[in-house]
Amino acid sequence: MMAQTGRFYDDIVIGEVRESGPRTVTQRELIEFATRYDPQYFHADPVAAEKSIFGELIASGIHGAALWRALDHEISGDIRWICGIAWEEVRWPNPIRAGDTLRAVAEALSKRPSQSDTTRGIVEYRYTLLNQRNEITFTCRSINLIEMRPPERSLQQVSA
């Protein structure tokens, strides 16, 4: 029988906080993302962005969420995810600017077994993306499905 790897629902500890390493965002990266996915002038045009309320180029909110997701894989990639099912309380309280160094934080808030499927559980996380000044640039509560640890089979079942 093959060993199961990764962290199951049963291994998630409420109150546990994990933090990624740092990642610095470049102006080129902001422009490339914005040009492709959110070409508003304050995301894609450095000269025009100087006249915006931000005074300079900033990342698209969706780009901030994508940056968080990439960093979150570093700290949560060992979890046996099935899928995310909801984001709640999504906020972008501070813009991400070229040169910002970001890090992701994941905090397990609550968990409960699924009522419809005994092979999975529901875990709620608070996700946060912080810059080098500890300002929140993205945050949300996320509801996720995670695999339950399969029941151990007895030696009689394995050899039968």
Span between termini: 13 Å
Number of domains: 1
Strand content: 25-35%
Helix and strand element order: EEHHHHEEEEH
- For the record, the CATH architecture stands as Roll
CATH level 3 topology: Thiol Ester Dehydrase, Chain A
Largest sheet: 6 strands, antiparallel
Global morphology: elongated
CATH superfamily: Hotdog Thioesterase
Q: Provide the structure class.
A: alpha+beta
Query: Into which percent range does the helicity of residues fall?
Result: 25-40%
CATH class membership: Alpha Beta
Q: Determine the mean pLDDT.
A: 93
Number of helices: 5
Number of strands: 6
- Unreliable segments of 5+ consecutive residues: none
Roughly how many Å is the radius of gyration? Answer: 20 Å
Topology of this protein?
Elements: E1 17-19, E2 23-24, H1 27-37, H2 41-44, H3 46-49, H4 61-76, E3 81-91, E4 101-113, E5 120-130, E6 136-147, H5 155-159
Antiparallel strand pairs: 1-4, 2-4, 3-6, 4-5, 5-6
Q: Can you tell me about this structure?
A:
The chain has 160 residues and is an alpha+beta fold. It has one domain: Thiol Ester Dehydrase, Chain A (Roll). The protein has 5 helices and 6 strands, in the order ββααααββββα. The protein has helices at residues 27-37, 41-44, 46-49, 61-76, 155-159; strands at 17-19, 23-24, 81-91, 101-113, 120-130, 136-147. A hairpin with a 6-residue loop joins β4 and β5. The chain is elongated and about 65 Å long.
